[in-house]
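Audit log entry. Action: structure prediction of a protein-small molecule complex. Ligand: flavin-adenine dinucleotide. The ligand was supplied as SMILES and no pocket hint was given, so placement is left entirely to the predictor. Protonation state taken as written. Sequence taken verbatim from the request; no trimming, no tag removal. Recorded inputs:
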Amino acid sequence: MSAEQTTDVIVIGAGAVGENAAARVIQGGLSATLVESELVGGECSYWACMPSKALLRPGSALHSARAVAGSREAVTGTLDAQQVLARRDEFTSHWDDSSQVEWVEKTGITLVRGRARLTGERRVEVTTDDGATTLVARHAVALATGSAPTIPPIDGLDGLNFWGTREATSAKEVPESLAVLGGGVAGAELAQAYARLGSAVTLIARSALLGSYPEPAARLVQQGLEHDGVTLHLNTGTESVAYDGERFRVSLAGGTVVESEKLLVSTGRHPALAGLGVEELGLEPRRLDTDDSGQVSGHPWLYAVGDAAGKVLLTHQGKYEARMTGDAIVARAKGELQGPPERWGPFAATADSYAVPQVVFTDPEIAMAGRTLETARKDGLNVSETSLELSVAGSSLHADGYKGWAQMVVDDERKVLVGVTFAGPDVAELLHAATIAIAGEVPLHRLWHAVPAYPTISEVWLRLLERYGL
Ligand SMILES: Cc1cc2nc3c(=O)[nH]c(=O)nc-3n(C[C@H](O)[C@H](O)[C@H](O)COP(=O)(O)OP(=O)(O)OC[C@H]3O[C@@H](n4cnc5c(N)ncnc54)[C@H](O)[C@@H]3O)c2cc1C
Ligand SMILES: NC(=O)c1ccc[n+]([C@@H]2O[C@H](COP(=O)([O-])OP(=O)(O)OC[C@H]3O[C@@H](n4cnc5c(N)ncnc54)[C@H](O)[C@@H]3O)[C@@H](O)[C@H]2O)c1
């Protein structure tokens, strides 16, 4: 069967990002067709953010209760792994996307299920179970196809039935032992989740743990993992991997062999552009060159957004890009936007370069917005850093023996914040104040008037500003 359907805008990929891009197009008065080959809602809903946080939260709630004298005595048991997995299943809607489909339809978006491929300018072929459909866009096609795991070329690994993050976040049982390859945010979070659920976990990283975060913050997470019984092999290469039908054997540089029931490979991700037909358009399939509205250089009808654009691989930032991209497509279609979008304007995802918030949801957490000292210096900024142990009345009330760390990176010429990091139990909710201060370029002398409530952990803001010299 072959048919041709015309719409204003085609969005390929119905993850959180594609859904938002299509919704903004509809809100702007154009029609949008969304194509999805798997579950509407994408990686975040079913195999990433939601299930991983659902696996972590019970462990951190238990740990919080144990961290306070009085409630500690009331906690006599351990985590109930089956209940944790059952609650995780609720958060993934049992991998059933009907409520998301309902939202898509209510929003006025046309959903087409199948695998999409670009076949020419504004033309997309969708392969479905009953054949193929050709979609034609009057204005634009947006690629919101997400990212795919990057698997390292380790001897013996290819072809083995190891876990990726999908299998780790959707597992039905807790393995007796788990080896985790990769010391990034996915590796750290899932190592802790499984250690607290009862697995004997070993984490192997060729570099430091969480190497893109400030070292004192990453060290606190490392101590947290060690406290949970995770064995760490950091700055250690992996030479080969084998599986004998029952156990994995991971051979490390230096001769150590790690044996485990399951092996999780979480060594980064790259834009999922394979098989989409971008090469035929003369484009580099590993990374597209896009402007701040997501428009692909040399192809004004084509956009990439979210993980597919490869700028910032985070749901909230992808959804922000989607709002800009959807609105930019509408504005260009109506002749209201010509040329590149204005920085910090309604069509440019400028915060991608200045004010990205990110949280490592381990216990303790790391919450970081903007740049680190290193990335700020690399970008040529004249910056200084102010850091301290996170120790205020709010933190000592929060948990006995609370251990945390905070840092602000200041542009000393403009006297504004360009980066803030907090590490410690339950610091994630402190982060939005930092994001606002950075994105708003709030001058430090004005931030001095933003008084943190007493006794909250936010009082660390006051201590940082005092130490800076205010
Ligand atoms: C373990 C893990 C935990 C994470 N935790 C967090 C977190 O706590 N917070 C956070 O902000 N981010 C987190 N992330 C990152 C987050 O999951 C991604 O940034 C987010 O899912 C990207 O959304 P997206 O819509 O761009 O892509 P996706 O969610 O991957 O959606 C892309 C969609 O496109 C579809 N698709 C692909 N190709 C085609 C095609 N040719 N035709 C039709 N459909 C197609 C796919 O099936 C998919 O549904 C985590 C990632 C991982 C791996
Ligand atoms: N809380 C969150 O927001 C959250 C949680 C999980 C994942 N994510 C997102 O998902 C993406 C993927 O997560 P990730 O942890 O897989 O990626 P990552 O880029 O954060 O970390 C990858 C890790 O794998 C290591 N690595 C790479 N190649 C290797 C090799 N050949 N051998 C051994 N180690 C190797 C790297 O050194 C790094 O430590 C991230 O970009 C992140 O933004 C976000």
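Audit: result stored. The two ends are 71 Å apart (CA to CA). The CA atoms of residues 359 and 367 lie 4 Å apart.
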